[in-house]
């Protein structure tokens, strides 16, 4: 019989946040694959877990992934843990999961702490709809593209950031997205947990005077639906109604559908569009 991969959520700070199920599973599996064995051994020692451990991280994910798959195919059970939080979220765990499915190996997730949800729920910003971007790319071009895409994002935005890059990221967000409300959540669940709720401008000023320590979760207000709608209407006003119609006709819409779309874009009634283009 094939083995099973267990995605085990570990604490993001406070060790008491681990579940009984995770502790039991870590003690029962044949092997634990950890992002950083030097970090994870502290967790295992705290809970007196003696299960053998091996490394699985960004730099060995392909080669070690193949090794783990062979062990699973041979019937071993493996628990995957990350440095903190839930495996597969902003780490190479997602690739091991895909490899398991390709090999016909069962995967299950043991839920627990995850920084993005913890930060979102205490941010004071809307929680019903959100967009998680994790760490922004290091490549300048790719980073710029992602931030530009966020300009029209109406959902609450969640980012991860290291303390030494926090100010740079806040400045980039301010320059591209404008002065929005932001909550910077630092050292979540730990003794010195702090949540700073300010505008981006205020947050930049604050962290210039108080250099941050510890990993940060940035929770940023999305774009206002009303503001975005008005901006789009202003953009459409720059072309004539007939030119606007052509945009949708060339996309394959019939005249009635195109009129409806144009009216919605311009914030007017379909009758006004009909009268202007004088369609019989």
Concise overview:
With 280 residues, the protein is α/β, with parallel strands linked by helices.
What does this structure look like?
44% of the residues lie in helices and 18% in strands. By secondary structure, it is of the alpha/beta class. It has three domains: 4-113, 3-Layer(aba) Sandwich (Cobalt-precorrin-4 Transmethylase, domain 1), CATH 3.40.1010; 116-223, Methyltransferase, Cobalt-precorrin-4 Transmethylase, Domain 2 (2-Layer Sandwich); 226-277, no CATH class. The strands form two sheets. Strands 3-2-4-1-5 form a five-stranded parallel β-sheet, sandwiched between helices. The chain is globular. 29% of the residues are buried.
Distance between termini?
A: 71 Å
Give the total of domains: 3
Mean pLDDT over all positions = 92
**Topology as a string of helices (H) and strands (E):** EHEHEHEHEHEHEHEEHEHHHH
CATH class of the largest domain: Alpha Beta
Radius of gyration: 25 Å
- What's the number of helices? 12
Structural class, from helix and strand content? Answer: alpha/beta
Tell me the CATH superfamily of the largest domain.
Tetrapyrrole methylase, N-terminal domain
Percent of residues in beta strands?
15-25%
CATH topology category name of the largest domain: Cobalt-precorrin-4 Transmethylase, domain 1
């Amino acid at each position: 019989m094939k083995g099973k991969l267990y995605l085990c959520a570990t604490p993001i700070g406070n060790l008491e946040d681990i579940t009984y199920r995770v502790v039991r599973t870590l003690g029962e599996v044949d092997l634990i694959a950890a992002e950083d064995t030097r970090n994870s051994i502290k967790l295992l020692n705290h809970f007196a877990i003696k299960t053998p451990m091996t490394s699985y991280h960004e730099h060995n994910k392909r080669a070690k992934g193949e090794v783990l798959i062979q062990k699973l195919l041979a019937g071993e059970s493996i628990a995957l843990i990350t440095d903190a939080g839930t495996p597969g979220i902003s780490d190479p765990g997602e690739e091991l999961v895909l490899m398991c499915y390709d090999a016909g190996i069962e995967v299950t997730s043991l839920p627990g702490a995850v920084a993005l949800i913890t930060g979102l729920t205490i941010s004071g910003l809307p929680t019903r709809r959100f967009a998680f971007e994790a760490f922004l790319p290091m490549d300048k071009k790719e980073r710029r593209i992602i931030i530009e895409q966020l300009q029209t994002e109406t959902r609450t935005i969640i980012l991860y950031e290291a303390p030494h890059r926090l100010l740079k990221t806040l400045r980039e967000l301010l320059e591209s997205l404008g002065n929005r409300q932001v909550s910077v959540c630092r050292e979540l669940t730990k003794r010195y947990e702090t949540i700073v709720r300010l505008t981006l401008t205020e947050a930049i000023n604050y962290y210039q005077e108080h250099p941050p320590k510890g990993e940060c979760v940035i929770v940023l207000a999305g774009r206002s639906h009303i503001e975005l709608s008005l901006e789009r209407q202003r953009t459409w006003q720059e072309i004539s109604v007939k030119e606007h119609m052509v945009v949708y006709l060339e996309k394959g819409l019939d005249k009635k559908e195109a009129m409806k779309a144009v009216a919605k874009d311009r914030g007017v009634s379909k009758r006004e569009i009909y009268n202007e283009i004088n369609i019989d």
